[in-house]
Amino acid sequence: MTHFGSENHTRMVTDALMAGWQRKASSSSTPAFNGLSPGQLATLLQVTAKTQSETKDKKMKPRPCRMDSDRFIPTRNNKQMEVASFLLTKEKEPVDTKKTSQSVPKQKAMSVLLNGYDINNVKILSIGGNSLQGFQNIKSKVHCSKKTTAAPTKRTRRIPSAPDRILDAPAVHNDFYLNVLEWSSQDMLTVGLHNTVYLWNATEGVTRLMNLERGEGYVSSLSWCKEGNYIAVGTSDSEVQLWDVERQKRLRILSGYRGGVGCLSWNDHVLSCGSKSGEIRHHDVRMADHHICTLTGHSQEVCGLQWSPDGRCLASGGGDGMVKVWPRVQQGSISNAQQSIHSWNLHQGSVKALAWCPWKPNILASGGGTSDCHIRLWNTSSSICIKSLDTQSQILSLVFAPNYNELVSAHGRSDNNVVIWQYPSLTKVKELIGHKERVLGMTLNPDRSTIATLGADETICLWKSFKMKPVKKTTMASSTLSLMRASIR
Length: 489
What we know:
By secondary structure, this protein is of the alpha+beta class. 21% of the residues lie in helices and 33% in strands.
């Protein structure tokens, strides 16, 4: 630095090292400083600087810097900016070669007394604090935090709102108690229209199986055997006819009923028939004397009949609102006094809709008519109703859809729709609207992907609502291929 040999030079250096407010104070009181020695002057300036700094600290309180932020913003006061300006100006001054070694300690002492630090060791802009602390805090948080994986998105199933195909069903009887629609295990859809039974499949189209002769009434019920080669046809004239579908030939007639036969159900070689008289008859179709048992438990017409998938129990629903479960008839036994296992009377109307759960053989679903409108799920092991739902609409048919573990209901007044329910919560999944009048019956195709519904508006709607995703088939094929490759290697 330049050598200062006189008091004027000392005053120039002092003014240069002062802050703005210090120079203003010293200039206003310059006449008082003329008679002071350098030591007295330094003491006076130190006291003045302390007083001014205390006053300034009260007025300005710098906002503390957050150490956990993602960047560091330094806090600079006016004093730092003035020192920086002085240092930049000082660099342009010419170097005085006459500077002695005695002036260096003196200048250092004056700088420390005035500013609190040595002016020769100060950077042009200095910042305080640890600027890396915030970054280190963030870095530690990032390394210490657990890796979180996004939850897998559940793919929603798309159910078509419109039927895949609509077939004509002219001259269908609009009767709640009829069961004239069924799909065989050989993919043959059958419908009874007045006095004629028709067969339909996608490849061959429509075929007429049989016609009732004049005076034989109309078709009131249909049921396929398990193998899909024989069909039983119940009539309103109190008889049941057995037909060989392949040869289109009638094999035999089962008669002896009082009133029409409104429901049929097969269990191996035993055919169970429910009639308007409230009786249920079992027939062993292999025997000449085919009648083996009669069940009497309903006070009104039997309008629903279903054997369980395991063949151990027969469920029946009647116009009296009763739901009964009967045991399987022992082979070779002939009895007319067989008692029901369960008898439930919670329904307030006729019970036509019955369905057994394929994946839980002890679960039975039942649906009530216009004055009831309830779907009830029964546990036949504990004999209790495990779930009940008021659909506010007449229920004519129930079907379990095992591809997605769902229950499907067909309705009449006043909705005339088909509803898919999630099992066992009975939460509505989808509502299918395609019929203008009530849905009389419903059946499921062999691969459990399509339901057929028969409406009183003389139409049959085919709904592909339970088609399995092709991704699963591709996955199975790829896994099989990988196993084949592994065996070859």
